[in-house]
Amino acid sequence: MGQYSDLDRKVIKLGKMVVRMCTAAGSGHPSSALSILHLTTALMYRVMRYDPKNPWNTGADRLVLSEGHAVPAVYACYAELGGVAGRQDAPLTLTFDDCLTLRESASVLDGHPNPPQGFPFFDAATGSLGQGVSAAAGLACAARVQGSDKQIYVIVGDGESREGQIYEALDFIIDHKLTAVRVIFNANGQAQSDYVSPQQSAEALTKKLEAFGFDVKVIDGHNFDEIMPALTAPATDKPIAIVAKTVKGWGVNEFLTSNYHGKTLEESQVAAALADLDAKGAELGGDADADVAQLTTPQAREADAYAEVSAGTFEEACQYTGNDKAFAAKKMSTRKAYGVALAALGRDRRVTAMDGDVRGSTFAEYFFKKHPERFFEARIAEQNMISAGAGLAAGGTIPFVSSFAKFIVRGYDQIEMAAISEANLKISGSHAGISLAADGPSQMAITDLAFFRSMAHAKRTDGAPICRFFQPSDAISAFKLTELMANVEGMCYIRTARPDVPFIYDENEEFTVGGYKHLIDGEDLAIVTSGYMVHVAMKAAALIEERSGLRVSLIDAYSMPLATDEILQIGDDCRGQILVVEDNYAGGIVDEIAQAAAASDMGVMVHPLYLKKMPKSAKTPEDILAQVGLTAEDIAAAAQRIFDMSE
Amino acid sequence: MGQYSDLDRKVIKLGKMVVRMCTAAGSGHPSSALSILHLTTALMYRVMRYDPKNPWNTGADRLVLSEGHAVPAVYACYAELGGVAGRQDAPLTLTFDDCLTLRESASVLDGHPNPPQGFPFFDAATGSLGQGVSAAAGLACAARVQGSDKQIYVIVGDGESREGQIYEALDFIIDHKLTAVRVIFNANGQAQSDYVSPQQSAEALTKKLEAFGFDVKVIDGHNFDEIMPALTAPATDKPIAIVAKTVKGWGVNEFLTSNYHGKTLEESQVAAALADLDAKGAELGGDADADVAQLTTPQAREADAYAEVSAGTFEEACQYTGNDKAFAAKKMSTRKAYGVALAALGRDRRVTAMDGDVRGSTFAEYFFKKHPERFFEARIAEQNMISAGAGLAAGGTIPFVSSFAKFIVRGYDQIEMAAISEANLKISGSHAGISLAADGPSQMAITDLAFFRSMAHAKRTDGAPICRFFQPSDAISAFKLTELMANVEGMCYIRTARPDVPFIYDENEEFTVGGYKHLIDGEDLAIVTSGYMVHVAMKAAALIEERSGLRVSLIDAYSMPLATDEILQIGDDCRGQILVVEDNYAGGIVDEIAQAAAASDMGVMVHPLYLKKMPKSAKTPEDILAQVGLTAEDIAAAAQRIFDMSE
Questions:
Q1: CA nearest B624 in A: which residue?
Q2: d(CA B641, nearest CA chain A) in Å
Q3: CA–CA separation, B232 vs B235, rounded Å?
Q4: Residue A193 and residue A259: Cα distance in Å, rounded?
């Protein structure tokens, strides 16, 4: 009997539940779960400092399960420990038999780790692979900012170690010396379609990890004598990575006969599988139901007193960041105003920031200079930045992550996963639309409205939109909307542009979620637009009045979801005609309003004027607007066609 | 005088043009371009087998410039060589002075490599970083399929070597022994915001490349005595990677004073820069205008005779893939029918395929089994798969790439870059929508309609949509639409679902770009839907008639862009009421129709019924439809509300 025979015996009990719960669910990944079961048992019964009765303890060590499909292993351990799930205002103590509700619509035990659906033991929703190491790194950044010594454990599959994001995360961990993260690779040698590539063998992973700068410990992942020292070894100046050699389907003979990835046993096969495990258990002896947990309950971090995060006045923030002259000249790009707001917000220690090697262009540079201890440069690796940002949010900070809006596209899958996590993540995409001009389409975000709008119309568990979208037209609105983002719970995206533009708003103007601004009050046509195009539309409005004597209403639709009822009313007051002008592809503001118009019987007509061709480089914003047909003249001509039609 | 002093002298001439063209453009990346100028000179004047007068030669070696912002170096070389640009039916011989049109709206010299805008020397649009190695790998796969010995050179920046996709591509190159690819890392030590991380130093890159399995040659990137042997060394069984140590802003003193990333010199600084280079040139002596090119013109690959790619009949293809029983039972999932079509299409040697380690689930497995020599397993690395797929397309094959639709989101930035390249890429996203059920939201594609629809409404240079979107409802339509994709020039996305569903269509039914099917002809309400939801809506139609005696029209809107005029007409004939039912978030079919309705004066009302909450796991498709309010009962209730309202 080794010193860990009690844990060995517990694994048998847990393994039986893994088999049973997956068969009861009719789907799941029992063979993957069995391969990590010794690892989760070691972590959850011995190594992690946490309280299964209080998953909301902010001082607790954390586990990120990057290979989310193996989650039955965690559910089995947690339920056997009588862990608490559910919402904090309606906690739910799990029993071992609750595992049999796996994947049911009413169960908190989702198919993959899903914290907001009732399993707060996890911080990060996982299941789309290769994202867990980044989330763990973000949690470690948050812990560092907070002065916490919490440890973050992350289990990664060998198959998913093909995802490039893993390597982004490894570089990030080394760059920032995040020794609080312990990365555990589960090298069971099998992926879904086949054995893993030799490029993901335990040996290859070890070589790569060493080349990336890790202290690598190669262990037998089913032997606690090797697992425990590797999990508890103090990190030196090098972060530790563990390559655990494991067996997919450990303990169940049927699973060893072929590739059982993602397959459960039939009811008729369960008895034999349980017998396999029982036979192993009988060899081990001991009491499977013994309480073998030896856990330390950590001290919770003192909660920050709730207060709004304030950026102060724009004038003061401009002084703070050395932008007095631009303030006086009343001209600044929206991306720069974002940076001004970010630096000013950063005076609140809850605020953190990341950027993808373009901080001089996104103006996250201002934050970096003022609050370097809370800034985490992510370099040119946007996927890791988004997932690490979600980790920073889960760790209790208010993270703002920024890059060119085009490069944020690189992280759309990660953004969707952050949305499932209901991460309080703030995303800034700069140089959006086409006004960037000279660099050409590889640097232009044109699909982003469609993507983010789709998430603005679906609800989180608390009824809020999954993502809120803001597109400021001037520096004042950019500043105020950035501040608003910090104070709205949940994911937000702000879309800023490259060119310097004159201020439109007064410093006291207020901006709200779902709001819009009625900039010009006319009666012949309502023009709705946003962002950089507001400036072009203002010129168009002047042209129209000059030529036809007709007066348009002009609306700055800076928020999504949008108050479409009110905008339709304005359209109704403008001869029932709305023209929507956008520097993005289909799927943006025009659809927002058209969907509302077509579902109403008001009879308001909505006319689109958006980007309908792939742009190329042009020297100036004016040149590119001419290239794609979105100049003030183009807008005026579109308006004239509507006037002619509605005569 | 070394053996390459003539090339050294040429670099001086080219460097002067790099400085001048960037200043003329007012933007660009002269310092990056100068760091790779020796490399591009070696490649374009000596190493590559190609004909500057005929960039369309299909036998030529290829260059992919992953760090696209350094493109002025390539433009300078190509123009000095009198290379041909433009379209094949309107070729344009560049002069050296044409470089001064860099980034103009009318210029073929876009800000980043942009083949369809008139620079076919390149295969791949680049500029969003980290994608070039994958594109090169795809070109090498195409060359292998075609029996061509063409070499593919790719230049990668050290800063962009932080992108995880680079590591996905390296693994892929080793897995498939793509020794035709020579990966050249430009280690100039500077990125945009700062010096590169020590993780991307020449030394660190060398260690990583060795760990990944490359034969690594570290050279001075400004010394032809080291460059030429490294570029021309024959590859052994290991692919060769070159780490070229370079100087950002080489040859121009001003560039060496600080970080000039992405900055051009002022007009007033140009003279000094040219003088710096001239001084170096004077040391070298020789004639900068000498014709130093020593190029081999390759034999073009024999063109495939044009013929439609045929999948044959569905019945025969089912036999071919062992699906006789499913055919007889008239029940099959759309994802499986995709696989059946793909295997059948694969009998045409132009067709290639890739999959992201889920080929058993996407049914790309059928292609793999029948045509393994044209199947390239990409493993769990979707970004590389999409970009390599674009490379396979640029190499003249017709590539189909597949994964779960959710994991395709991982490659949206790469898809946008493939769109800029106008790549003939066919993308299959399986398990889309929510009918996957049990695995939960991390495996569900719900934003994909919004994203792809946005690109379906913008035009390529040839006037076709940037991307066409298909969503089949049954196996017949999935089979036919997959065949259609092979025969439509340009990017297409097909969205398939997990569940087995009964056949709706007859084997002889025809499907077209922009088409739809009027499945039931009623007069009281038009229900428009697509994909899996067609089956649910059919049940709803029966329920509605049973309960109210009212008859609905049912439309399967399987294509995007959609023939909205005709659908509005059907709605007009159905009391002017349309109900759109979708298992995705906002931004899909409802917006397609609402945009058309709101721009018309027909007064047809469009009512949405789509996914408005974040789903979680549920055991069955029925359970999840109930969870989110999209059952047949929910549809019938929505229809009843419309009837009540329009009484």
A1: A105
A2: 13
A3: 9
A4: 8
- Contact flag B112-A207 (C-beta cutoff 8 Å): no
**Which residues in chain A land under pLDDT 70?**
1, 647
Provide CB contacts within 8 A for B289, sequence distance 6+: B13
Do B172 and B133 touch, CB atoms closer than 8 A? no
Whole-number percent of chain A with pLDDT over 90: 95
Nearest CA in chain A to B607: A599
Residue numbers in B near A606 (CB within 8 A): 595, 598-599
Q: Assign B155 to helix, strand or coil.
A: strand
CA B539 to chain A, closest CA, distance in angstroms equals 22
Residues A516 and A556: beta-carbon distance below 8 Å = yes
Cβ-based neighbour number of residue A572 at 10 Å? 17
Beta pairing class for B398-404 and B351-355 = parallel
* pLDDT computed for residue A646 by the predictor: 77
Cβ-defined contact of B192 to A357 (cutoff 8 Å): yes
Residue B6 CA to residue B291 CA, distance in Å, equals 9
Establish whether the linkage from the previous residue to A561 is cis, with ω within 30° of 0: yes
d(CA A405, CA A399): 17
| Tokens (6 digits) for B580 | 């759109």
A240-245 vs A215-220, strand pairing mode: parallel
Low-confidence residues in chain B, pLDDT < 50 = none
What 3-state DSSP class applies to A103? coil
Which residue of A616, A631, A645, A647 is the best one to mutate when testing the B interface, meaning the one whose CB has the most B CBs within 10 A?
A: A616
Distance CA A537, CA B616 (A): 43
Question: What is the Cα–Cα distance from B129 to A168, expressed in whole angstroms?
Answer: 14
Q: Which among B160, B197, B617 has CB closest to A175?
A: B197
Cβ contact B199–A171 (<8 Å) = yes
What region, left, alpha or beta, does residue A285 occupy, with left being phi > 0 and alpha being psi -120 to 50 degrees?
left
Question: Of A393, A364, A392, A395, which is closest to residue A379 (Cα–Cα)?
Answer: A364
A314, A507 contact by CB (below 8 A)? yes
Distance CA B257, CA A82 (A): 64
Q: Look at the block and give the residue holding tokens 């009421």.
A: B577
Q: Is A592 a catalytic residue?
A: no
The edge-to-edge listing of strands for the beta sheet with A559-560 is A375-377, A351-355, A398-404, A426-430, A491-495, A467-470, A559-560
Packing angle, helices B412-420 and A412-420, rounded to 10: 150
Q: Contact, A401 vs A425, CB < 8 A?
A: yes
Predicted confidence at residue B647, as pLDDT, reads: 67
Specify the amino acid at residue B192.
Q
Is the distance from CB of B120 to CB of B55 less than 8 angstroms? Answer: yes
Residue-level pLDDT at B455: 97
pLDDT at residue number A377: 98
Cβ of A450 within 8 Å of Cβ of B450? The answer is: yes
- Side-chain-side CA neighbours of residue A496 (13 Å): 35
Angle between the A72-80 and A5-25 helix axes, to the nearest 10 degrees?
120
- The backbone torsions φ and ψ at residue A578, rounded to the nearest 5 degrees and listed phi first, read -125, 135
A596-600 long-range Cβ contacts below 8 angstroms, 24+ apart: A596/A564, A596/A565, A596/A567, A596/A568, A597/A564, A597/A568, A597/A571, A597/B594, A597/B597, A597/B598, A598/B593, A598/B594, A598/B597, A598/B598, A598/B604, A598/B605, A598/B606, A599/B594, A599/B605, A599/B606, A599/B607, A599/B608, A600/A568, A600/B605
- Set A67, A382, A422, A582: catalytic member: A382
Please name the member of B419, B442, B606 whose beta carbon is closest to the beta carbon of A128: B442
CB atoms B598 and A601 under 8 Å: no
For residue B57, the tally of other CB atoms under 10 A from its CB is: 16
% helix, strand, coil for chain A, step of 5: 45, 15, 40
Q: How many CB atoms lie within 10 A of CB B283?
A: 10
pLDDT for the residue numbered A336: 98
